[in-house]
Amino acid sequence: MEPALLELRQVSKTFQTGNTKPVKAVQSVSFEVPSGINTGIVGESGCGKSTLARMITGLTGVTSGEILLNGTRISGLRRSAQRDVYRQVQMVFQDPYSAISPRMPVGTFLTEGLVHFGLISKGDRKEQARKLLELVDLDPQLALRLPHQLSGGQLQRVVIARAISIHPRLVILDEATSALDVSVQKQILSLLVRLQEEFSLTYLFIGHDLAVVRSITEQIFVMKEGSIVERLPSETLQEDARHPYTLQLLSSVFSVKDLS
Amino acid sequence: MTILELEHVSVSYDGIRNAVDDVSFSVQEGEIISLVGESGSGKSTLLHCIQGLLPGGAAARGRITLFGKNMLELSAAERKRMRGEQIAMVFQDTGRYMNPITRIGGQFTSYLKLHLDQSKEELLELERTMLRKVNLEDTERILHSYPFELSGGMRQRVGIAIALSLHPRLLLADEPTSALDVTVQAQVVKELAALCRQEGATIIIVTHNMGVAAHISDKIGVMQSGRLVEWGTVEQVIRHPKEAYTQSLLSAIAELDDTRLLKQKQE
């Protein structure tokens, strides 16, 4: 059988700060993300979802357990070996403004990955930046602008374009649409769906809004206090939820449809 | 009884464009009003304008009548006298407006002392009562805590307790629960609405969350590019929106029973 795109085996992370009690941020988390099956991780602040994402991308080391990509272990690698992982795993964060140096033109930022991995020569940067901007429905003229001259939604499109520019297999989106207005959020979600079809990507979508995560995934893991409490198929999320915490999350949604 | 009336209110930061553009509405005593809209729609500017908290350089025109006084013509000293007992405000992140090196009890007491001439024990008793009203039962521990020792939800509850302690007739709340986790937000939103009903206070809440607005308000105002494009009861605005903009905002909200954007994969 073909190995899953991503597999976590008993992954744990403990933070030790000063003389205080160690914080068990992630506790023995195991799950699989098959290729093409978008997966959501849902939980509230401090549940360990971002730590989990950082461990998968290698930004934070694991305390114990293993992370495998296509059956090959990617946790505990040396820095030089991690380069190849980044080629396949890219990440998008909540705040696009903190992802870009405020003094770097958008076009330079967009093509950094391509140049870094030797996929294009420096002379092709302008042309590639233009193509990438068009790919995410932005005006190619924006390549010369600085980050603060773009809106949050425009800049998040730029960050997404850069992440997929090197054709990764897995894109981790950590609250990537949470800071955006609802109308912009919906546009970005549609963009992600389109890009997935075009580039055969798989998304690991991390968020706190159950309805948003459900809309773009096929399976959802609910996290609480560092552990996964429930795995649910996205389509039948509401009907299948059993864990009290999931039910509490569901009942906390203020819907504009069912007004009591 | 009408306690607040806005007539053709416009606010400009640069003298060229209007952040708030010709807004008029009136609020009856005891009502819960939500102003919704996307970033940059002018909803927070409008809220700050009502109680004269606009930054220097911003110019407001029109007429804002609150308890019979034109707020735009009051002096800073007169407005200051209105704060506390007549108007109070709750912000998105109460922690940011607190002194980080003073315990909650100390900050609460210094706020009350500005307005009340009572003994220390009486003030302390009022503080305990208010904390209990926002479901912070462990009052002694809260009063002895520094802001950073409390969670975001607890700090928002403290902010609400302080704001309501002098029984203001009008509470202005700017995204009071937007920084909170969803489960905490649900609790705090319900507490805030229930408490204001109980105290008979009028609230104007600014929020980007249409769901929250739909669940607690009597009336909703929808803002877009500085203009109030729709105004009415929850029934009118949420169920039967007239404006295309309101309809587009409502349809952009992800709901749990929506058809998913992603088509189900055949395995």
Keywords:
heterodimer; A: 260 residues; Rossmann fold; 6-stranded mixed β-sheet; 9 helices; 10 strands; 23% strand; B: 267 residues; alpha/beta; 24% strand
Description:
The complex is a heterodimer of chains A (260) and B (267). Chain A is 35% helix and 23% strand. Chain A has 260 residues and is of the alpha/beta class. Chain A has one domain (6-98, 170-259): P-loop containing nucleotide triphosphate hydrolases (Rossmann fold, 3-Layer(aba) Sandwich), CATH 3.40.50. Chain A starts with 5 loop residues before the first strand and ends in a 9-residue tail after the last helix. The mean pLDDT of chain A is 92. In chain B, strands 6-7-8-3-9-10 form a 6-stranded mixed β-sheet, with helices on both faces. In chain B, strands 2-1-4-5 form a 4-stranded antiparallel β-sheet, covered by helices on one side. Chain B is α/β, with parallel strands linked by helices. The A-B interface holds A 36-38, 44-45, 152, 181-186, 189-190, 193, 196, 208-212, 214-218, 234-235, 237-238, 248-257, 259-260 and B 38-39, 152, 181-186, 189, 208-212, 214-215, 234, 238-239, 248-250, 252-258, 260-262, 264-265.
